[in-house]
Structures are given as C-alpha cells and as structure tokens.
Write a structure and sequence with these properties.
- This protein has two domains: about 260 residues, Rossmann fold; about 180 residues, Glycogen Phosphorylase B (Rossmann fold, 3-Layer(aba) Sandwich), CATH 3.40.50.2000.
- The protein is of the alpha/beta class.
- Strands 3-2-1-4-5-6-7 form a seven-stranded parallel β-sheet, sandwiched between helices.
- The two termini are about 20 Å apart.
Length: about 450
Amino acid sequence: MDDDKDSVVFRVLMFPWLAHGHISPFLELSKELTKKNFKIYFCSTPIILEFIKENLDENYLSDQCIELVEFHLPELPELPAHYHTTKNLPPHLISTLINSYENSMPIFSKIINNLNPDLLIYDGFQSWAPALATKNDIPCVHFSTTGAAVMALYYHLLNFGFDSHDSFPFSAIFQTERERKIIQALFEANEGVDEVLARCFEQSSEFVLIKSLREIEEKYLDYLSILSGKKIVTLGPLIEESNHNDENNDHVDIIEFLNKKDQSSVVYVSFGSEYFLSKEEMEEIARGLELSNVNFIWVIRFPLGNKIGIEEALPEGFLERVKKRGMVVEGWAPQAKILEHSSTGGFLSHCGWSSALESFYFGVPLIAMPIHLDQPTIARFAVEISVGLEVLRDENGNIEGEEIAEVIKMVVLDPKTGEEMRGKARELRKKLREKGEEELHVALEELRNLCIKNKK
C-alpha cells in the first residue's frame, strides 16, 4: 500500500438500522476501518450507544478513532427512548419504530451537515440518508448485513413479482407456500418497502458492500450484481474474536461445563437477541433436547417486562431430568467462546446471518430452525453447502420435539452424517479465515479509493 495514500485520514459516518444484527457488523467494520487510518463517527440512538459503550474496547473511544454520535428519534408517548432499538421491542411497536425512523430525516440532516464526513456508510430503511449525502457531495455506500443468497432472492422477487419463486435460478434456495405468503403479506403491510430496498442499492456510489465471502456465495453475488446493476464488494465474515483475557467471570461455569464434555458432544441452543420463543416452542425444544439424549447449553431470553421463571416456562421436571447433561442459561452467554470450544458439536439456531457466519467461522455445523424473514433462506444455504441440516416444520408451521431430536442426533451422534458435516465445517472455517482477510483488505482499499476520488 502507498504510505502517503494511507496516511490521509478520512472521516466516515456509519449509520446502521436499529437492530443488533445490523449494529454488530457495522461496528466490526468500523474497527477494521480504524486500523486503516479512518476516523469513525458511529451514529445511532442513545439506548444503542449505551450498549456499545459497555461492550466496545475503551481504547477505541479514548483514542477517539471511534466517536459516538447520538441520533434522537422523534419522541412519541407509545415509543419511549428505551424502545429506540429492536431489542426488547414489543412486536406490535415495530411498525411504529420504522415509521419514526423514516420520519427522522431532518434530525439526520443536521448531523450530516455538522460533521460533513468524507463518506457515509448506510443501511436499509433509510433511502433518505444517501439522498442527503449526495445533496452535500458526500459519497455514500450501502452496506447489506445479510447474505447474497438472501438479497438475490429478494431482488428477484422485486423484479419479477411474488409469483416468480419457481424461476429463481438456484433450486437449493426455495420458500414454502407458508413462507411465501408471510413475506408477501409483510411487503403489502409495509407499502413502499420494496422501493426503499431497491433505492438503497441504486443510491450507493459505485458499489455495494455485503457481509459475505465470494468463496462461498459467488453465484449469488453475481446474480445479485446482474439484478441490481451494482458491483458487489464482499467484506468477509466480520466476526468479533472471543476475548480469552476477558476478566468477566460471570460465565466461568459454562466453560467448566464444556471442559468436562467429550469433543463435539454438546449442542449450543440460542435464537438470537431479538426473538422470544413462545411457551409452545420452548416446550417442543425441551422435548427434542430430552429425546436426543445429547449434552446441551440452552440460552433462553424473555421479553422485557413480561418475564416468567425458567422452571415455569419449561416442561415440569425437565431441568431435574437433564441436569447432568444440560445447562439452561437465562439472558446472555459468551457465544463465540462456546462455539470455538472443542466440545461444541452443533448449533441449534434461528439462522440469523451473523449467527450462521459465526457458526461457520468456528467450524460448527448448524441445526437450522429458521423463524422468519431471511432465516429460511439462510438455513437452506447452510444445507446447500453441507454445513447444516434443517428442522422441518409441519404444514401449519409448527415444530415438533421428535423432529428436533432426529436432526440433533444426525448432526451430533451419527458417525457418517455428523462427521462429514464437521469435516465440511472445518474446511469452511479455513476459507473464511484465509479468504475473508483478503476480501476485507480489498474492500477497505475500495472505500479509501472512493474517498480519494471524491477529494480530487
């Protein structure tokens, strides 16, 4: 790299959507940019920035290479400040949050005028943000935090209509009739969201960033580029490494539990930070874990203000019956540390893209139990590349404990299927680590060159 070129400090305004699955990759990209002499302004709501302050290495903040910028949504009686994030947000308020966000252009306009950054990196649901940047002669780049298979399918449906599923050129990626109806209803209920998604790509300067790897999603990246008319630049997995020097001993018991178990014998169960299992779903998962007879760590979360005890939520006597081989954790667990442990042999997951990539990155096969939105596509992508098996639902969309148990046993206990899958997962882990670094380096150079070009 040219030393003179790299010595110029460019100021980047990061503006993610208000969900943890978006905040986290934007923050990881911010850290990588600071290593290349970019100054970061990370713009989000106070409740999210508070979370970042608590979890970000203080050196980034003390050195001021990452500066947090408060973004205050319009105040509404039904949407107090602690609901200015999708985390713990009651489902009936999601449309209220989106509407409030969409109406906050004047607030963001003041921020971008005051900072006058060299570059804006923006998310979805905010096509007005790149419009403001362009108006101020600031280059802007869209960052898609989900995978290329997902975005290629969405773009295909937007281009050819919701009855065009069967003409999608990659048969491994499909939607059930029930999933099709849900997605179509979602788009119809949020009129104009399809246009917003399209504009986010269209308004991006020269290229679009995506959290993916060409090595594993090449055909989907190429198809997405054809459909959108944009060059797609991959960033690699953007996984935060687990901190072995972490002084927080709150979860030492989890690591001790894993240390006592055989290699690849434990299933890690978690459904992300924003989805809350219903009582019926928890009961079926508990039944599946019990029937499978495997070791497990299960992280359970309850909605804010609507908490019931774990014993009350689970089948009677379950905790007592599985106490020698199972561990139920409430709230949060160190996911990266669990996934990288040699005793972990499978990840029963909702298949959010960040969780799926983290599982791939640590070489752990997915036991896929997708819930909604992009998750069924991600689950089928994991199956396609031979690092996952899907828990199938019945015709009404319900899960059954017997099906969960069968898939767990195939992944963890089956000497043929399980071992083959772990072998594929180890190969994928190597690709993500080696090629991911290369693709990230290229992407950072693309961003620097875009800033340089705009300064000429």
